[in-house]
Amino acid sequence: MTILEPFGARLRHAMDTRGPLCVGIDPHAALLTSWGLGDDIAGLERFSRTVVEALADRVAVLKPQSAFFERFGSRGIAVLEQAVADARAAGTLVLMDAKRGDIGSTMAAYASAFLDKDSPLFSDAVTVSPYLGFGSLRPALDAARISGGGVFVLALTSNPEGAEVQRSIAANGRSLAQVILDHIADENEGAEPLGSVGAVVGATLDEAGVDLGINGPLLAPGIGAQGATAADLRRVFGSAVADVVPSVSRGVLKHGPSVAALRAAAARAAGELAAVIG
């Protein structure tokens, strides 16, 4: 069995060579329609295949949103499996946006689905929710360590409703978001060049207001359709901006179904990010 380098090292290399851009694969109904595709399995398959063909050999990360495939049942999952396999074979890292969170054997089953190298859905990393307690994520953290995978933990998300939970004050007097970030930093202690446990921190925030020094990647959704721009990244992330993985979905995907137009849109986004991040 091939032993993968830790995800953090592989991600750092991808960001340094391809730039930090992450593009979502979000085949929601309106986007399929705008591409002239049906909201059906055929449309889903064509959409996913086109995005992978256009971008998998040039962006650091592709991020399929699992829910948009799950809504089609088993045939949608089969399309997702193929998209993940094709994207990884083409050289990009795949971050499964699943936001799973549970306890015990159920969390272990989620971890097996996305972080076990024998799984047909094996991805380089997966998003998880810590709001049953950070310790509930242990099966995913352990599975990632074994497989060389990564875990991105929701900390300060881009949706405005998140603040009522994430900005609440924990028993130790810190915000819940900071508690989560502190746990992530502990997981990444000593890792080089970058830890494999990341945090999700929205680029739409007025300010982070937390310590983002987690020695790990910071997935930054919200650029484009949600209102944030590349120029917001330094304001939100400060000195941690070099570890940011900016996520753009609709801002790139709306230019399909043309492969050339998707590539051009991704290149523009990458250029804007390079001007800010370097």
TrEMBL record:
GO molecular function: orotidine-5'-phosphate decarboxylase activity
SUPFAM superfamilies linked: Ribulose-phoshate binding barrel
Domain Orotidine 5'-phosphate decarboxylase: 20-265
The keyword Lyase is annotated on this UniProt entry: yes
PROSITE patterns, A to Z: OMPDECASE
Catalytic EC class: lyase
Lineage: superkingdom: Bacteria
Pfam families assigned: OMPdecase (PF00215)
Active site: K99 (proton donor)
EC number: 4.1.1.23
Keyword Lyase on entry: yes
Pathway(s) annotated for this protein in UniProt: Pyrimidine metabolism; UMP biosynthesis via de novo pathway; UMP from orotate: step 2/2
GO biological-process terms attached to the record: 'de novo' pyrimidine nucleobase biosynthetic process; 'de novo' UMP biosynthetic process
Gene3D superfamilies: Aldolase class I
Keyword entries, A-Z: Decarboxylase, Lyase, Pyrimidine biosynthesis
Catalytic activity: orotidine 5'-phosphate + H(+) = UMP + CO2
Protein name (Swiss-Prot/TrEMBL): Orotidine 5'-phosphate decarboxylase
Organism: Actinacidiphila oryziradicis
Source taxonomy: Bacteria, Bacillati, Actinomycetota, Actinomycetes, Kitasatosporales
Gene transcribed to yield this protein: pyrF
